[in-house]
UniProtKB/TrEMBL annotation:
Domain of life: Eukaryota
Residues covered by the Serpin domain: 13-179
InterPro entries per the UniProt record, alphabetical: Serpin_dom, Serpin_fam, Serpin_sf, Serpin_sf_1
Coiled-coil positions: none
Protein family (similarity comment): Belongs to the serpin family.
Protein name, entry field: Serpin domain-containing protein
Matching Pfam families: Serpin
Gene Ontology CC entries for this record: extracellular space
Entry's Gene Ontology molecular function annotations: serine-type endopeptidase inhibitor activity
């Protein structure tokens, strides 16, 4: 099977993604026997989604981290990655078979920032994600419930509480964005 991603972009800045994963694992203090999975693929898509809504110095820093020079390049690679990671082709109903892969993305943006139609179009069209406005300041509990309901549906019940009660301590009027990116492999029995 040939993959459409070009050789020079296929690493999608693996060094940065691995460094980030290592920092997360160290910060989390992973213990023996713990069940932690770090996905450079997901990190790349998460940072790419952030880049789509960024500008100025933030966007330049994301270009550097992602090893890219333009949003067009980032979105092109992301589109190829999403298509590659989605073995079920919605347009023709063809599945490549087992294992079943569930690839889900979503973005909740503070309603004070107002979603731009161009951002929403790219998020939905390129990243196959949902993008919604949310009232983090006044309805944090509802936002947590919505994110968790989305995660449970999108992951076919494998993830029920993406955001715990602890999230309510940090979701407030200063929260601008919640991004969720996940890839789940299911075997014939439905287990991961």
């Amino acid at each position: 099977m040939e993959f459409p991603i070009q050789a020079e972009t296929s690493s999608f800045n693996t060094y940065f993604c691995l460094l980030l994963a290592n920092n997360i694992l160290q910060a989390k203090g992973v213990e023996n026997g713990s069940n932690t999975v770090i996905s450079p693929f997901s990190f790349h898509l998460l940072l790419s989604l952030i880049a789509v809504g960024s500008k100025g110095r933030t966007l330049e820093q994301l270009f550097h981290c992602l090893g890219s020079k333009s949003l067009e390049d980032i979105n092109s690679l992301a589109s190829q990655m999403v298509d590659l990671a989605s073995p079920f082709n919605k347009s023709n109903g063809v599945s490549i078979g087992e294992p079943d892969l569930s690839f889900v993305n979503a973005a909740w943006v503070a309603q004070s920032l107002k979603l731009k139609p161009s951002f929403q179009e790219i998020v939905e069209g390129v990243y196959h994600a949902i993008a919604k406005e949310a009232d983090f300041a006044n309805k944090a509990e509802q936002v947590v419930a919505e994110v968790n309901a989305w995660a449970e549906t999108a992951t076919r019940g494998l993830i029920r509480n993406l955001l715990t009660a602890e999230a309510l301590k940090v979701i407030n009027e200063h929260t601008a964005l919640i991004l969720a990116v996940d890839t789940i492999f299911l075997d014939k029995t439905g287990s991961t």
